[in-house]
Amino acid sequence: MNTTEHSRINWFTEEESRGISLPGKFTFPFYYEPHPLARLAAQGLQQYLDTQSDFDHEFGFNGDNGQLAIGKMFGVLVVQSADGRVGSLWGVSGKLANSNDHPRFVPPVFDMLTRDSFFLVEQENISAVNEELERALANEEIPRLQKEVASLKAQAAEEKIVYRQQMKANRDQRRLRREEQKLILSAADYAAFDAEMVRQSHYDQYVQKQLAEAWDARIAEVQAQLQPLEGRVEALRTERRERSGALQQRLFNEYSFLNIAGESRSVGSIFADTAFGRPPAGAGECATPKLLQYAFLHGLRPLAMAEFWWGAAPRSEVRQHGHFYPACAGKCKPILAHMLHGIPVDENPMLEPTSEEARLRIVYEDEHLLVVNKPAGLRSVPGVAIEDSVFSRLRDTRTDFEPLMIHRLDMGTSGLLVVAKSAKIHKHIQQQFLRRSLSKRYTALLSKDIPGEEGEIDLPLAADPYNRPAQMVCYETGKPSLTRWKVVSRENGITRIHFWPLTGRTHQLRMHAAHTLGLNAPILGDDIYGIAAERLYLHAAALSFTHPVSRQVLSFEVVEDF
User: Which residues contact 155 (CB under 8 A, 6 or more apart)?
Assistant: First the structure.
């Protein structure tokens, strides 16, 4: 590719693009097979990354860079100029080598790092507030006075308890004396005696009040010294919070995105009606929004996009060096919905109805339940846009019962699935799933020849809030997930493996296969954690559970067809 001077566009030569037709529609960003022109553009960018000396970024290829290693998501956008020339733009998610200024890449939608920008100026102001807050918190008088106040309050509480106990003893003694004197005194003398008892009671209450006021005065004296110090700390915290909030809001307003019609919307307004309510951190910093923004600003027509990962994988996510990935749903989907408005986009292939040839086979059935062999590509339950599923097929073809789904398999996973015919049976078998008292075995084909013959994988998994339905490894909020595995065979760089999931987390087997802390070998055809193919090569092959009525152990096995 040739790069014209003073331009970020990499024009395709006639020889490079010969025989490649232009795409009829723009790429669906969240599930795609890269167009040949996008692949060609990505190859050019990858060749540049392999040989460039324009910047120094530690991608972690040496494998021992720890916190310094930062793999990056890069993107390419195939564009067409007004005069019909076709080329590509390069973009990167976030900063590269701690800078937004790279002549070969499109700039950010808004560059916060520009000298004297309001962002840097206000960041300096916030830093000054932070420094003053740190000095205020370092004042040793604050903890000393706080400790003294706490000590005085403890002493006051203890002394008040002691005096209340004394008051109770005095009250009990007066009650006994009243009972005694009432028997021996005349009415007039008893009235005088009772008045003395009342006076003593009032005196006890007076002493209690004086005691409380004395302690309150002592505590207030120390608090008067503490209050201005704590007030200063709270004022600085409030100022920092308000400055940060105002800066964030101004950033939301500055981040404005165009579409092909020239309509501009701020990131704040784009996310206002989403589940987030406000833009998540990093919204607008991903490669594809940057690329589209540059194209719209310079009168270029977007034709196709692709994003790929370059460098070491992060500890939390599954990322393979050089592999293509969809745009992130949480941060990019609302933005791209606006930016691609008015541009014909490929249909979401995930919404295509399942072929009727994908037959649902019943493996076992009695009056209480049935076991089916779900084909790959068929949903377990209906989706938002696709009704076809195991549930809907059973519901529409069987009139003798209402199917109750006990568990689910991913759309791409084939194999054994149990369906109950009544709520009682559903509850009983579901409890077996929850207690992990049943046995499940899966077969998968892994994309690599893995080391070792068998073992266990234990990784805490959590949903990736910005990229659903993908999961991530998180040692803070993740739920435990444990899988036992054993190699069956190896052939031509592919490993056939058996998995026994000992917990039941979403995408557990797919994550345990693909993640670098697992087997580091995505399942063949995994369109989320690996490379899409004609199917996901994961099959629920064997299942055993106790029949809720007969109490017999039922065991089923359906050999995979791959």
Answer: 215
Closest CA to 126 of 43, 29, 237: 237
Instruction: Report residue 274's pLDDT band, with 50, 70 and 90 as the boundaries.
Output: confident
pTM of the model: 0.73
Residue 495 near residue 487 (C-beta atoms within 8 A): yes
Check if the beta carbon of residue 381 is closer than 8 Å to that of residue 391. Answer: yes
Residue type, 81: S
As a whole number, the mean pLDDT across the chain is: 91
Query: What are 81's two structure tokens?
Result: 């100029």
Given the residues 410, 464, 526, 527, select the one marked as catalytic: 410
Evaluate whether 327 touches 338 at the Cβ level (below 8 Å). Answer: no
Q: What is the pLDDT of residues 507-548, one digit of tens each?
A: 999 999 999 999 999 999 999 999 989 899 999 999 999 999
527 is catalytic: no
Query: Can you tell me the distance from the alpha carbon of 19 to that of 93, in angstroms, rounded to the nearest whole number?
Result: 31
Q: Which pair of structure tokens corresponds to residue 266?
A: 């701020």
Q: Would you say residue 69 has pLDDT above 70? A: no
How do the domains of the chain map onto residue ranges?
2-110+257-350, 136-251, 353-557
- Enter the DSSP assignment of 302: E
- Kindly report whether the peptide bond that precedes residue 108 is cis, defined as omega within 30 degrees of 0: no
Residue 66: pLDDT over 80:
no
Name the CATH topology of 353-557. Answer: Pseudouridine synthase (3.30.2350)
In the chain, what is the straight-line distance between the N-terminal and C-terminal CA atoms, in Å?
A: 41
- What 3-state DSSP class applies to 122? helix
* Encoded tokens for 451: 């080391």
